[in-house]
Recover the amino acids of this structure.
C-alpha cells in the first residue's frame, strides 16, 4: 500500500483544535471547550503562564490517534511530520486563545540517569514486548532523533534534558504521561498536571493518583513513594505485602499529601511493626 505524501486529517483522530485527540482535549479544558468538563469561571488558562510539554507525550498521543489500519503503514518520517506540525500549531493555539498570556515550553527527557538517580528502585520489565509496543518504541526513537537534529540545527526550540526538568518562574501546567517528571516540581505549588485524553487538571495534592494502587490518598507523591508504589510506566514498586503494610501504617499515623519525609522517617524508625518491611522501607527514605 502506497500512502500519499499529503496526510489527510481523517487519518488522525483530532479534537476541536487541529491536534491529536488526546492532546487537543487538554487544551480544550484550558480554554473551557472540553465537552466532558464544565468550564470554570475564571477559565483555567487564566491561572497559568506556561504549558510544559513532554514531547514524548505528543509523540505517544499522535501514534495513538493514527487510524489503526495505518499505524504500521506509516513511516517514521510521516509520524515525525505530524508531530512537527503539532509543535508549530500549539504556540499558535496558545497565543490566539489566551491573548498571548500563555506560552509553551517543550522538553525532551532522555532519562539517561534515571537508574543512577533512583538506585534502589525496581524497574518495569523490557522483554517480551508485544509487536505494537515494539513498533511504537521504534517510531518514538526515530521522532526523537529527528527532533534532536532539528534542535541542533536551530530549527526548533526544545529543552533537551535528562531527568530534572526546567525551572519555571510563573505558574504552569505540565502535560506528560510519565509521572517521574512531576518530581521536578513536587517541592513547590507552581505546577499542576493536565492529563491528556481527559483534560483533567490535577494539583500537587492529587498527584498520588499517578502511583500504582488504589486508596493511596494518604501517600504523599514523592521520590520515595514512586519507588515504593511504582507507576504505570517506569517504576515497578515493591511487592504487595510491603505496599499494603505501608498504606496501613500511613492510615494509622494520619499521613496526608503534606506529610514530610522527615516525619515519615521518624515514625517508621520508632513505630513500624514489621522489622523486615521497615528495613526495606527505610532504604527509600
Amino acid at each position: 500500500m502506497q500512502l500519499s505524501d499529503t496526510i489527510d486529517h481523517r487519518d488522525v483522530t483530532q479534537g476541536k483544535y487541529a491536534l491529536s485527540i488526546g492532546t487537543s482535549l487538554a487544551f480544550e479544558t484550558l480554554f473551557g471547550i472540553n465537552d466532558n468538563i464544565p468550564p470554570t469561571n475564571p477559565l483555567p488558562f487564566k491561572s497559568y503562564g506556561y504549558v510544559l510539554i513532554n514531547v514524548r507525550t505528543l509523540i505517544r498521543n499522535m501514534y495513538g490517534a493514527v487510524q489503526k489500519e495505518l499505524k504500521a503503514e506509516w513511516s517514521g518520517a510521516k509520524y515525525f511530520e505530524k508531530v512537527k506540525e503539532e509543535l508549530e500549531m500549539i504556540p499558535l493555539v496558545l497565543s490566539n486563545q489566551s491573548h498571548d498570556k500563555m506560552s509553551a515550553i517543550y522538553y525532551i527527557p532522555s532519562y539517561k540517569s534515571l537508574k543512577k538517580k533512583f538506585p534502589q528502585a525496581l524497574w518495569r520489565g523490557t522483554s517480551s514486548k508485544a509487536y505494537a509496543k515494539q513498533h511504537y518504541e521504534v517510531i518514538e526513537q526515530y521522532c526523537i532523533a529527528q527532533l534532536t537534529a532539528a534542535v541542533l540545527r536551530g530549527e526548533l526550540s526544545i529543552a533537551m534534558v535528562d531527568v530534572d526538568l526546567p525551572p519555571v518562574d510563573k505558574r504552569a501546567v505540565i502535560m506528560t504521561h510519565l509521572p517521574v517528571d512531576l518530581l521536578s516540581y513536587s517541592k513547590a505549588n507552581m505546577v499542576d498536571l493536565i492529563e491528556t485524553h481527559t483534560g483533567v487538571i490535577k494539583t500537587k495534592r492529587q498527584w498520588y493518583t499517578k502511583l500504582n494502587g488504589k486508596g493511596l490518598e494518604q501517600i504523599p507523591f514523592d521520590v520515595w513513594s514512586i519507588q515504593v508504589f511504582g507507576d504505570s510506566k517506569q517504576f515497578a514498586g515493591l511487592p504487595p505485602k510491603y505496599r499494603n503494610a505501608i498504606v496501613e501504617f500511613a492510615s494509622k499515623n494520619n499521613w496526608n499529601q503534606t506529610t514530610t519525609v522527615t516525619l515519615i522517617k521518624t515514625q517508621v524508625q520508632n513505630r513500624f511493626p514489621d522489622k523486615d518491611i521497615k528495613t526495606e522501607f527505610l532504604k527509600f527514605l
